[in-house]
Amino acid sequence: MTTTITTQLAGYLSDAHSIEEQALAQLRSAPDMAGEDRLAAALDAHLGETEVHERLVRERLDALGESPSRMKDMIMALGGKGFLAFARSQPDTPGKLAAHAYSYEHLEIASYELLARVARLAGDAETEQMAERILPDERHMAERLEGVFDDTVRASLAAVGSTDASEQVLSYLSDAHALEQQSIGLLRRAVDVSTVPELRDAYQGHLDESERHAALIDRRLAELGGSRSIVKDAAMRMGAVNWATFFKAHPDTTGKVAAFAYAFEHLEIAGYEQLRRVAETAGDAETARTADEICAEERAAAAILAGSWDIAARAALDEVGAR
Fold it and tell me: Quick check: helix, strand or coil at residue 120?
């Protein structure tokens, strides 16, 4: 099946609109449940920016004679509310909320990086300029969130009411192991569906690292007398399966996989940044060193993907025969 590049561009704009709808669904409630003042302020500030982004994307769709997808928007908005319910149910809500928001900002960054390139290839300067206008806001928000990790970890430890931070080290290690299980599942499927050698090699290289990361976390848990959570690991592996189904349902698989992998790298980065801080609070230098070592490799993997947007955008268009 073939499509025009203009039709594919409209699809990317529709995806961007639904992503903004999910962001709005989260940002309208998240500040009130943040549990930490600087995090709440950052989320509240980004709400106004996101309202502008949604309007800009909707206006570009209208200019192209298109409209947002009600189905996509509804599904994404419900997903945003679902995550808020999950975060609210967790004792360490500030940390969970900050990590998810940090990852979500990078999903938006990836989406606009790809949109800008597809617009450029389509000769649509207005859409390219719109994407380039929005990107600095998303990057700045990601920086603001990373800047409050110290505060959200302190707030999370206070929220769980633990007088012994070493107890929380085990919980954060268990979370890290579950994240690695989803990363492994996602990367295996990314390798399987990728048609671009450069991206396939990047996914395979990080898959090897992720398997080593899981082993390191497993060993550290054992050394501290803890163990992985079977429930958390199973839930995260199921998430990877669901993502694989989502990828295969979209003809522009390469772009979708690259964007989600980039976002997931930043969920892991946030997780390891938080784990390091909890370990340092507990005086656990070995766990802090392990988290720092793994985090550096997650950042390197994310940087490789960030350098591949041109390849991913062109490949996504080739997959649907866009001309």
Answer: helix
Burial class (CB in 10 A: 0-12, 13-18, 19+), 139: middle
Within 8 A by CB and 6+ apart from 298, the residues are: 265, 268, 269, 272
Question: Which domain CATH number covers 215?
Answer: 1.20.1260.10
Instruction: Please enumerate in sequence order all residues whose Cβ is within 8 A of that of 256, keeping only pairs 6 or more positions apart, or say none.
Output: 246, 247, 250, 316
Q: What is the pLDDT of residues 254-303, one digit of tens each?
A: 888 999 999 999 999 999 999 999 999 999 999 999 999 999 999 999 99
Residue 160 identity (one-letter amino acid)? V
**Shortest CA distance to 27 belongs to which of 55, 2, 1, 49?**
49
pLDDT at residue 71 in the model: 67
* Long-range contact set of residues 70-79: C-beta below 8 Å, sequence gap at least 24: 72/14, 72/15, 72/17, 72/18, 72/21, 73/17, 73/18, 73/21, 75/18, 76/18, 76/19, 76/21, 76/22, 76/25, 77/21, 77/22, 77/24, 77/25, 78/25, 79/22, 79/25
Last residue of a domain, one of 120, 143, 161: 161
Residue 288's domain comprises: 164-308
* Whole-number Å distance between alpha carbons of 26 and 12: 21
The structure tokens listed for 64 are 């192209």
- Mean pLDDT of the residues in the chain: 87
Would you say 169 and 277 are in contact if contact means Cβ atoms under 8 Å apart?
no
pTM (2 d.p.): 0.89
Q: Which of 135, 161, 187 is the last residue of a domain?
A: 161
Q: What is the pLDDT of residue 195?
A: 86
Considering the domain architecture, whether residues 16 and 136 belong to the same structural domain is answered as yes
Q: Are 191 and 201 in contact (CB under 8 A)?
A: no
**Closest C-alpha to 259, from 210, 323, 315, 175:** 315
Question: Looking at the 3D structure of the chain, how many domains does it have?
Answer: 2
State whether residue 91 is helix, strand or coil: coil
Residue 240 scores a pLDDT above 60: no
Reply yes or no on whether the pLDDT at 109 is more than 80: yes
Q: Are residues 24 and 152 in the same domain?
A: yes
Q: Are residues 41 and 106 in the same domain?
A: yes
